[in-house]
Records
---
Amino acid sequence: MNTAHLDSLELLRATRLTTLSLTRDLTQAQADFRPEADAWSVGQVLDHLLIAEKLYRDSIAELIRMSKDGRRPVIRKGFKDIDTSIAYIPKSLLPFLDVPFTILNMFVPPFVRETMAEFRLLPAQNPQIAEPASGRPIGELRDALRDSFDDTAALLKSNPNLDYRAMRYHHPLLGENNVAQLLRIVAFHERRHQAQIRDILRSRALPKAA
């Protein structure tokens, strides 16, 4: 039995523990602090991570249902569905770029896409569907992050005999990924935002702990 998806799940678990460690001692004022008017707070970053993980967990759940129903387990999303943009490309142009990006990603190795997901090599614009809320209690966010990983792990572990390599998720920016690769992208995306959290916490204007 192929266990690549379990290795990817362990990567996500370790990444989530780091996120929880980074935010362990934050006060609510610190969680709500925004270093600039148009920047996210730590709380917003955490809410964004929750939304992103749920989006991909829901897609994995759909792939599992398709596989169990005897259907070909392939999901195709376009920029109209998830309008993530990079390098200042206006979102209004994204629907016209589905085909060019899809073709380009046919020649981009997975490790390159993972590197782009983890490191801020290019500026990125989050999709509208993953726009975070502000002001959520920091304790609630941290509990939700634990629960979210548990939900993702339970989904996979309750379906141990499926062929996760055959399940495919397509997006023009992400390329084609099986479930294991998709989980890795979720983890590397979270690591990218860990760097953002560290930058916020280093700000001299960050409220002092009580």
Note: DSSP finds seven helices and five strands in the chain.
---
Amino acid sequence: MLTIIQSYGVLLLQSLGKTIELCFLSLIFAMIIGLIFALCNVSKLKVFNLIGTVYIDAIRGVPLIVLAYFIYFGIPAGFQAINIPIRLSALTAGIIALSMNCGAYMAEIIRAGIQSVDKGQSEAARALGLTYGQTMRQIVLPQAFKTMIPSIINQFIITLKDTSILSVIGFPELTNQGKNIAAINFKILETWAIVGLMYMIVIITLSKIAKAIERKIKFAS
């Protein structure tokens, strides 16, 4: 195991960095997607409710690996069929797939956070002359965000683990790099033990952060 660390440690750390980068970027876009469809779901307009529900149900009903294949292989093939050459990098396709997948779950987290805020505060804000948008930005979302932080960190952990699925499209994240290293040195047990340990350290650290934040929020409230 020590030999693998000495020979491939830097490479594995670089792959872990790419994994975290992919996860972080995907989470940012997922937050935007989640906010949009969460607002659709809490809207009083049925057409927006329908749009939010269809998106969430559709994306959550498709396995991430199928979504990744569709975006990386299917979309370019579709454009080529109409004589429009297009090619997505593994990073771009990975961010799109993870953002869409995580965004559907984030929408539910944000929706629950919004609905956890007392409706009386929204009604009071509207009575004072604030618009719906101002009420959301200034009153509802800041309070909802506090309750959402632990769930967002937990979703970050889930998304971090989901990055391993993107090895199927060739993105050089940690799992893919571990597969390549195991194929080179034939030390399968040791290589995957190191990869698993690296995931474990990051995920346990994030879990501890989530629990600490959750305790602070409960203590503050």
Note: The longest helix spans residues 2-42.
---
Amino acid sequence: MEKRSSKERLILSSIDLFSRKWFGTVSVAEICRNAGLSNGLFYKYFKDKEAIFREILELVISKISSSVAQVSGDSALERLSSFIDIIYGFSQENTALVKVFREGQYRYFEYEKRLKAVYEHALFYILKSEPDIADYLFGLGGLRFASVRSAFHQIPVERKRLLAILKDGIFHGLPIDEKKVFSTSITPLPLQIMPDGRERLLIEGKTLFGEKGYFNTNIHEITDRAGLSTGAFYTYFDSKESFYAELIHRVGREVRHFITINLPPGLNSLERELRGLWLFIVYLSIDRTCYGIVREAEFVLPAEVKIYYDAFAEGYRKHQDPGIAALDPTSIEFLLGVAHYLGIEVIFDESPANARNVILQLGQFYQTGFAGKFEL
């Protein structure tokens, strides 16, 4: 076996560490120690920690680009099936790289844009049509998310079911009443009057973590903003991590409650799904800090984020229309994924200038899948 070069050993060491920890806590010395090399050798190849992190992101894009180039099939449906196998398989076989990229897409959004371009090119090859935002979100959002959740958390995902969803949709035969979906009558979340010390800490902590991120925010800043002593913080919370975990759960509860209280009666399953997407976008426009907190938590406290998404999945299982077959686990993960990537588009790229139109197009895909728009 050919001996690995020092540069390769440093990259492999970094992938190992960045996939198990978050960027801010990994040091150059730790990378070198893990690789069995001297600190001085690191700087022969890389300017700093960010440089090696970016090189790994380049590696991920290159590997995915090479993988999707292998999509094959005589028909669009055969090519779509091949594409699903490749994306799902990549997450299973390169889980550590995918974990690093998940942080990279958050820190340096230009890499997510570049990967999106790779996927859009693949969709163009599959469908023989230039994809728009809705095409991309339906074609990749659910597939990427479900594949990652399966690889990271062993969530049951069936590739045959993913193909069936992309081909024929999920909510067959259900109509869409646009007035119900996009009703502008919005009930805000209850406002806290005279919050106690614990509540003040959570309010100020949420703002600071949203503005500066977890690693760059310290407990002293939080207590100063809340008008409390550092000792008071430890009256309510064991550590900064436990405080952050509570914030993640709170964000999830607030988003779910906001959506729930603004779902009018009489919606069918499809209208409820689209109304939920619309309300999610509305909520993000009101509170832009919440999404950053959850996204950063994916690499700070991944177990808590699993709980966060599991709670949304449980909501789907609890709220089913009578007389209609319950959503299977793969469909639930798919729907969560479309919402997740719609959120990324709105928060980081802001490309759906007309979110309403995008949601309506997604509704059509949920009715008929790609078969309703493209020749499969």
Note: The chain has 19 helices and no strands.
---
Amino acid sequence: MKVLYKLDAFEGPLDLLLHLIDKAEVDIYDIPIKQITEQYMEFVQTMQELKLDIASEFLVMAATLLSIKSKLLLPKPPVVEEDAELFDEGEDPRDELVRRLIEYRKYKEMAGQLRDMEQERSLLYTKEADDLTPFVQQQVINPVKGLAAFDLVILFQKALRKMASRNVVAKIRRDEISVKDRIRELSDLLSRSEGQILFSSLFDEELTREEIVVTFLALLELMKMKRIVCYQHGLFADIVIQTKEGGGIGEHETAEIRY
């Protein structure tokens, strides 16, 4: 059965190099390649002895360190003193590695800060926000906003005039209509019309309800006293009111009417 081990201490070759540099307490801008390369190769060899799977990036970094070491061991070409100012000494083979290490260290520190912030935030417990709408103070709208004192005085005067008109008490006078007087009026009308009139001629649009009722009562009273007769010439024809012979109305007869 194959057993795999994961080294949590180093997440990659750059992480291992930073660990070796910090352990050796050397300047990252002046890396002792020989010393760091030997320590790095010892770590890779240890992983091989433990039969651990080595990522390809670790092997690539090992080859890079050996290449830098070999370049530093090669002798530099002689430089003529007259041309020394015109020619640069050339780029240090360690510069590219240093830039990569500095960039990795910067992101590693940022990742550590984010991890600490995550751990600190995980200790806090929150709850959903409550609905505080019922507790919000409602803004009171001013009903007289935009009105001056003079406008309010005018409105108050209008209200007083309107209330004064409502307090007016109207006196209603009741018109008393006598059946006795209506009988006399009908008798005079029959006398002027040669003792015969039509029922429809007694009612016009100007008569009130009381006058119509009194007229009916007067006709019924005359028929009761047998002073008039009412008849029709045909179905739905107008009613004819006619005075009987000798059917005059005296004062003593009308005096007995108590309407």
Note: The domain at 179-254 is CATH 1.10.10.580 (Arc Repressor Mutant, subunit A).
